[in-house]
């Protein structure tokens, strides 16, 4: 079953400080993702992979075309969704694991990881237990679980972010370089988490600059073509 699909998706940036020059980035993107599969976005640097991810998450409005997403047994046209619907989609259906943790001051790591699960209605104790399990799998020492992650290393913060991203088990997940700052042992855990999410029926779209990781998790590659070269 296709759970995420774009039709003729287009996006350009207008640089208002430079005489309103318009830079086209995405043109006529036709992507479809099924439940249980992982698609890796490829294409040269600057082709528009991150831009496509941000469009899929609704951070950038699409200028042309549409994005259809399966949310609670209905198909939603995301480009027409109001802010309340977008919040609901992000809470229940669409997860995004960015490369960097947005640190929330004074909130303990375990609570940061459990928060998306609690938001989806999981009882607090069960959510905290799941958070602990994920943090341990990602080799974050127990002594750190009660501390806010502001002072953690880059790799530790990324693991907190990954634990948070995988905690809620969203049916559709967007992964932006999920192993970028990780050592081999932790990258291996992330590969397992991705495989488990697929087995549970989640659809994943990711950018993986680490090719051995990409080859182990991706079912298909989707090439984002640079427009100027394609034209
Ligand atoms: N907010 C923005 N304003 C203006 N131009 C932008 C903006 N974001 C991205 N771009 C431009 O859009 C193009 C695509 O950028 P994007 O980051 O999506 O590429 P990418 O394929 O993810 O690259 P990389 O592999 O290097 O991360 C680039 O030419 C970039 O300069």
From TrEMBL:
SMART domains to which the protein is assigned, alphabetical:
AAA (SM00382)
| Keyword check for Lyase | yes
Question: Any idea which UniProt keywords this protein has?
Answer: ATP-binding, Lyase, Nucleotide-binding
List the Gene Ontology MF annotations in alphabetical order: ATP binding; ATP hydrolysis activity; lyase activity
**InterPro entries assigned:** AAA+_ATPase, ABC_transporter-like_ATP-bd, ABC_transporter-like_CS, CP_lyase_PhnL, P-loop_NTPase
Give residue ranges for domain ABC transporter: 4-231
The domain of life is Bacteria
| Cross-referenced Pfam families | ABC_tran
Question: What NCBIfam families does the database record attribute to this sequence?
Answer: CP_lyasePhnL (TIGR02324)
Indicate the family of this protein: Belongs to the ABC transporter superfamily.
Q: What is this protein called?
A: Phosphonate C-P lyase system protein PhnL
**Origin species:** Rhodovarius crocodyli
Instruction: Give the organism's phylogenetic lineage.
Output: Bacteria, Pseudomonadati, Pseudomonadota, Alphaproteobacteria, Acetobacterales
């Amino acid at each position: 079953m296709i759970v995420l699909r774009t039709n003729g998706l287009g996006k350009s940036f207008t640089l208002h400080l430079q005489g309103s020059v318009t830079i086209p980035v995405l043109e006529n993107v036709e992507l479809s993702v099924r439940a249980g599969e992982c698609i890796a976005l490829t294409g040269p640097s600057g082709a528009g992979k991150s831009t496509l991810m941000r469009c899929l998450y609704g951070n950038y409005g699409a200028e042309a075309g549409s994005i259809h997403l399966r949310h609670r047994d209905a198909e939603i046209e995301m480009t027409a969704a109001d802010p309340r619907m977008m919040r609901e989609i992000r809470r229940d259906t669409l997860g995004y694991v960015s490369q960097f943790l947005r640190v929330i001051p004074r909130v303990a790591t375990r609570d940061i990881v459990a928060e998306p699960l609690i938001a989806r209605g999981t009882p607090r104790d069960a959510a905290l237990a799941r958070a602990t399990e994920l943090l341990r799998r990602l080799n974050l020492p127990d002594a750190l679980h009660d501390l806010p992650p502001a002072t953690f290393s880059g790799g530790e913060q990324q693991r907190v972010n990954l634990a948070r991203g995988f905690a809620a088990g969203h049916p559709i997940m967007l992964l932006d370089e999920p192993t970028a700052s990780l050592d081999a042992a932790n990258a291996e855990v992330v590969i397992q988490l991705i495989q488990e999410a697929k087995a549970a029926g989640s659809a994943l779209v990711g950018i993986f600059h680490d090719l051995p990781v990409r080859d182990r998790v991706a079912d298909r590659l989707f090439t984002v073509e640079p427009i100027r070269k394609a034209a």
